C-alpha cells in the first residue's frame, strides 16, 4: 500500500470514495505501510472486487452525486494487481451510468513496479491521473520501500515513471517523509524536480503507530516516523527553494492548500478541512468505511450490497465521525494563529497532549505551526497578486526585490545587534531573518 494521497474533498453535496479493488494486497512490503495489516480484517477472502459489485458501486456512486464531476480514486494495496481487464470494465460501467454532461475522472495510486506499455496506453487513452510513490534518491527510497523478499524497488519505480512519461500519462509523485529522508529536503526536491522531471509533488508525513492491531490506537509511534519539527523543517526548506525559482512551474500540494486558505477558500484536502466525513473507502467486498485511515470495525458503515451508498454517506454515524474533527479540537488549536489553515490536522495524528494537559493535539503540531507561520508573508503576496488578476509567480520577483532592499537598508547592522525596527529582538531573529 502506498501512502494515502489524502483525497481532495469538494463542497458538502459531493463526497469521494476511494476504491480498494484488491483490498490490502500488494506486491511490495513497505515498512511504514498502514494498510497491509487490513488483510487481517478479511481472513477468508480472495481480495478481488467482483464485476457485479463494481457495477453496483459505479451506478450508486454516480447516481448519488449531485455535482457534474465525479472522481473514481483507485488505491490499494496495489490496484494494478487487478489486471487491465478489470479497469477496462470499470471504464465501461462508468460510460454506461454516466449522465450527459457529467465529467468522470479516474485517479490511480500505484507503486509503479507492474506497469508496462499496455498500462501506459490505457492510462493515456482514458486520461487517468496517476500517483506514483517515490521517496527520493535511491538510498532514501529503498530504506523502507522494499518488495516481499526485502529487495529494493527504486529501479523498478523509476522504470514505471519513465513508462508514464513515454506514454504522455499525467502523474503526481507522492513522497512519504520519514526518518530516512526527513533531513534531506533539498536532495529529495532536486531529485524529483530535476532527475524525475516531476511537476506535481505531494509530501506526506509518515506517522506510524507502533501496535499489533494496525488500528488508530496506542500512543507509541515507530522510529520510521517523522517528527513534527523534522516535517516542518522539511517543508520550509523545500518552500524556500520553490519560492525562489519554481512558482508556477512546480506544484506542491501543501503549498496550494496554504494558498487557498490565504485566499479565504477551502483547502481542497481533507487533512486541512474543518471537518471530515466526505472522503470514504470502499473495500473489495463492498464494505464502506468512514476514511482510509479508519478502516477498522468501529468505523465500518455497512456494505453497499445491503445498504444504499448514499444512506451510509449521510448517516448519523458518518456525520458524527466528520464533526468530531472540529468538536474535539483542544483549546490550543482553537486559539492558534494558523488554525484557519491547519484546523488541527488529521485526527489520526492527534495523539499527544497540549502543554496544558489537554488531549487531542496533533503530533505534527510543531511542524505545522512553523511551516504555516513561515509562509505567511509570501502567501499574502501571492493571494494579493491572484486577487488583482496577476500571476502568483510574480512573487519571485517581488521577494527578490524585497531582499535587495533589505540588504541595502541593513548593510551596516550586525546579525547579533538589536533590530533597528525597535522590536527588542536581535536583528537576525527579526528584520534580518532571511526571507524566503
Ligand atoms: S480522518 Fe479526516 S482528515 Fe484524516 S484522512 Fe480521514 S477524512 Fe482526512
Ligand atoms: S498548528 Fe498546532 S496548535 Fe495550531 S491548529 Fe495546527 S495543530 Fe493546532
- List cofactors, ions and other ligands: iron/sulfur cluster
Q: How is the main sheet built? A: 10 strands, mixed
Count of separate DSSP helical elements? 15
Large-scale geometry: globular
- How many strands appear in the DSSP assignment? 12
Rg to the nearest angstrom? 22 Å
Alpha-carbon distance between the two ends: 35 Å
Summarize model confidence as the mean pLDDT.
93
- Identify low-pLDDT runs: 1-12
Structural write-up:
This protein has 436 residues and is an alpha/beta fold. The protein is 36% helix and 13% strand. It has a 10-stranded mixed β-sheet. It has a two-stranded antiparallel ribbon with strand order 11-12. Strand 8 and strand 9 form a beta hairpin. Helix 8 packs across helix 14 and helix 14 packs across helix 15. It is globular. The two termini are 35 Å apart. The structure holds iron/sulfur cluster (SF4) (2 copies). The site of one iron/sulfur cluster has 12 residues, from helix 11, helix 12 and helix 13.
Amino acid at each position: 500500500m502506498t501512502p494515502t494521497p489524502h483525497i481532495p474533498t469538494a463542497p458538502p453535496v459531493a463526497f469521494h470514495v476511494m476504491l480498494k479493488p484488491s483490498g490490502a494486497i500488494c506486491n511490495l512490503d513497505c515498512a511504514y505501510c498502514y494498510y497491509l495489516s487490513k488483510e487481517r480484517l478479511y481472513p477468508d477472502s480472495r481480495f478481488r472486487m467482483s464485476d457485479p459489485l463494481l457495477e453496483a458501486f459505479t451506478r450508486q456512486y454516480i447516481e448519488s452525486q449531485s455535482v457534474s464531476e465525479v472522481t473514481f480514486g483507485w488505491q490499494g494495496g496495489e490496484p494494478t494487481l487487478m489486471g487491465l481487464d478489470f479497469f477496462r470494465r470499470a471504464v465501461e460501467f462508468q460510460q454506461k451510468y454516466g449522465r450527459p454532461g457529467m465529467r468522470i475522472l479516474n485517479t490511480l495510486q500505484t507503486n509503479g513496479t507492474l506497469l508496462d506499455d499496455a498500462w501506459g496506453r490505457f492510462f493515456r487513452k482514458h486520461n487517468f491521473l496517476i500517483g506514483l510513490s517515490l521517496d527520493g534518491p535511491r538510498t532514501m527510497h529503498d530504506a523502507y520501500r522494499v518488495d516481499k523478499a526485502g529487495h529494493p524497488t527504486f529501479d523498478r519505480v523509476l522504470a514505471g515513471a519513465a513508462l508514464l512519461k513515454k506514454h504522455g500519462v499525467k502523474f503526481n509523485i507522492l513522497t512519504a517523509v520519514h526518518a530516512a529522508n526527513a533531513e534531506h529536503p533539498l536532495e529529495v526536491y532536486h531529485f524529483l524536480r530535476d532527475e524525475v522531471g516531476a511537476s506535481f509533488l505531494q509530501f506526506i508525513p509518515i506517522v506510524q503507530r507502533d501496535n499489533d492491531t494496525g488500528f488508530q490506537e496506542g500512543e507509541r509511534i515507530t522510529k520510521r516516523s517523522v517528527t513534527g519539527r523534522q516535517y516542518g523543517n522539511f517543508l520550509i526548506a523545500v518552500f524556500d527553494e520553490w519560492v525562489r525559482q519554481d512558482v508556477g512551474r512546480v506544484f506542491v500540494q501543501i503549498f496550494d492548500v496554504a494558498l487557498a486558505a490565504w485566499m479565504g477558500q477551502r483547502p481542497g484536502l481533507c487533512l486541512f478541512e474543518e471537518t471530515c466525513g466526505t472522503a470514504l473507502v470502499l473495500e473489495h467486498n463492498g464494505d464502506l468505511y468512514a476514511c482510509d485511515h479508519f478502516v477498522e470495525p468501529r468505523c465500518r458503515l455497512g456494505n453497499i450490497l445491503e445498504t444504499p451508498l448514499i444512506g451510509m454517506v449521510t448517516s448519523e454515524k458518518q456525520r458524527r465521525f466528520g464533526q468530531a474533527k472540529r468538536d474535539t479540537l483542544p483549546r490550543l488549536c482553537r486559539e492558534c494563529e494558523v488554525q484557519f489553515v491547519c484546523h488541527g490536522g488529521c485526527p489520526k495524528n492527534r495523539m499527544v497532549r497540549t502543554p496544558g494537559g489537554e488531549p487531542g493535539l496533533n503530533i505534527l503540531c510543531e511542524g505545522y505551526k512553523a511551516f504555516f507561520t513561515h509562509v505567511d508573508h509570501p502567501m499574502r503576496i501571492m493571494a494579493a497578486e491572484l486577487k488583482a488578476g496577476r500571476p502568483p509567480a510574480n512573487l519571485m520577483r517581488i521577494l527578490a526585490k524585497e531582499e535587495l532592499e533589505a540588504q541595502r537598508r541593513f548593510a551596516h547592522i550586525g546579525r547579533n545587534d538589536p533590530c533597528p525596527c525597535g522590536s527588542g529582538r536581535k536583528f537576525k531573529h527579526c528584520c534580518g531573518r532571511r526571507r524566503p
